[in-house]
Write a structure and sequence with these properties.
The chain has 321 residues and is α/β, with parallel strands linked by helices. Helix content is 29%, strand content 14%. The protein has a five-stranded parallel beta sheet, sandwiched between helices. A two-stranded antiparallel sheet has the order 4-8. A two-stranded antiparallel sheet has the order 6-7.
Length: 321
C-alpha cells in the first residue's frame, strides 16, 4: 500500500501551528509510517517552481495555516488547491481568521501608517511594491484590504481550529484523515468549553465584569461566575478547557461551537443572561448600561480570533478585494 502524500504551508502566521505538528511526540513516527511529507517550506527548502511542477491532485492532504493577508498568500493557496486532493484549514487563522483578523477594524492605510510612520522612524519608510537595489529589483506582495479566511479564497475540505491545535486534537485528526473516516466538521466540537470545564458553576447573576488582576479567584469555581470575562460559553471545547482548569479565563481561540456562525453574538447572549439584561429579574436601563460598560473592549474580547468569520467581518465602507 502506497503512503499518502501530505504537505504543510503557512500564510500570514506566527509559526505556532508549524511547531504544533511536532507536539504529538511519538505519534509523529506513526504518521511517518503512513505518509510522506512532500512539501513543507518551514522544514524543507522547496521553491515555487518545485510546487508548480508537481502534478495536480498529487498531494493527498495539504495543511494550510495562517490568515490570508496579502497577494502572495492568496496566490499560493490557489496553487496549493490545484495540487491537493484535500485541503485542511489548520489552526484558527485559516479556519476563522485568527488574531490577525483584528486588523480588519482598520483600513490597510491606517495599519501601514501605524507601523511605519512613527517617531521612531526617519521619514517615509513605507514598504514599496518594488525597490531598486544593486542586485536588481526587489518585489513585495501588496497587503489585501482585509484579512479573509482560507475558505473565502479556495474550497476547504476539513477544519482543525486552535491557536495552535493541541496534541489531543491532532491525535484524533491525523488517524481519521489518513484512514478516510473523517468528515468535514468532525474536528469542531458541538460542546463548548463550559461543557468540558471541571470548575463548579452556580449559574448566579453578577453585577459587573472586572479585570482578572482585580479578582482573587477561587480555583474551584467558574471564572465567569466570579465576575471575570471568560469566553467558555461561546467557544468550542476540543481543548478540554486547559486554561480555566489552571485559573485563566478562556480567550476563545478555538472559535465558535460547531453550527454557530458568530462567536461574539453567542457570547453577548450568554452575558445578557449572566448579568441580568434579559429574563427574570431584568435590570433597569441604567443598570444595564453600567454592566455593559464593564465589558472592556468587547470587539477585541468577543472576536479576538473570529472577526473575519463573523457577521461583522471587517470595517464597513472598506473595499472588498
Amino acid at each position: 500500500m502506497s503512503k499518502a502524500k501530505i504537505g504543510f504551508y503557512w500564510c500570514g502566521a506566527c509559526g505556532g501551528c508549524e511547531i504544533a505538528v511536532l507536539d504529538i511526540d511519538e505519534m509523529l513516527l506513526e504518521v511517518a509510517e503512513q505518509a510522506d511529507i512532500v512539501f513543507w517550506p518551514c522544514a524543507m527548502d522547496p521553491k515555487y517552481e518545485d510546487l508548480e511542477e508537481m502534478e495536480d491532485d498529487s498531494i493527498d492532504f495539504m495543511f494550510i495555516n495562517g490568515s490570508i493577508r496579502n497577494e502572495e498568500n492568496r496566490e499560493m493557496v490557489r496553487l496549493l488547491r490545484r495540487k491537493a486532493k484535500n485541503v485542511v484549514a489548520f489552526g484558527s487563522c485559516s479556519s476563522i481568521g485568527g488574531l490577525f483578523g483584528l486588523g480588519n477594524l482598520y483600513t490597510k492605510e491606517q495599519l501601514l501608517d501605524t507601523a511605519y510612520h512613527t517617531r521612531s522612524t526617519d521619514g517615509d519608510v513605507t514598504p514599496q511594491k518594488e525597490s531598486q537595489v544593486d542586485e536588481g529589483t526587489l518585489e513585495l506582495p501588496d497587503l489585501l484590504h482585509h484579512v479573509v479566511r482560507l475558505d473565502e479564497v479556495i474550497d476547504v475540505d476539513y477544519y482543525i481550529p486552535g491557536c495552535p491545535p493541541l496534541p489531543n486534537q491532532l491525535e484524533e485528526a491525523f488517524p481519521a484523515l489518513l484512514d478516510g473516516s473523517a468528515e468535514k466538521y468532525d474536528f469542531i466540537s458541538r460542546k463548548s468549553v463550559c461543557d468540558v470545564c471541571p470548575l463548579e458553576r452556580e449559574e448566579k447573576r453578577i453585577e459587573r465584569l472586572r479585570p482578572i488582576q482585580e479578582v482573587e479567584l477561587d480555583p474551584d469555581r467558574c471564572i465567569l461566575d466570579q465576575g471575570v470575562l471568560c469566553m467558555g460559553p461561546a467557544t468550542a471545547g476540543m481543548c478540554d478547557a486547559p486554561c480555566p482548569s489552571v485559573g485563566y479565563p478562556c480567550i476563545g481561540c478555538n472559535g465558535p461551537v460547531r453550527g454557530v456562525k458568530d462567536q461574539g453574538a453567542r457570547m453577548a447572549s450568554a452575558l445578557a443572561s449572566v448579568i441580568g439584561i434579559e429574563g427574570e429579574g431584568r435590570k433597569t436601563e441604567e443598570e444595564i448600561r453600567e454592566a455593559m460598560a464593564s465589558v472592556l473592549d468587547p470587539t477585541g474580547a468577543f472576536y479576538r480570533f473570529s472577526l473575519p468569520s463573523s457577521m461583522l467581518r471587517y470595517r464597513r465602507g472598506d473595499i472588498d478585494d
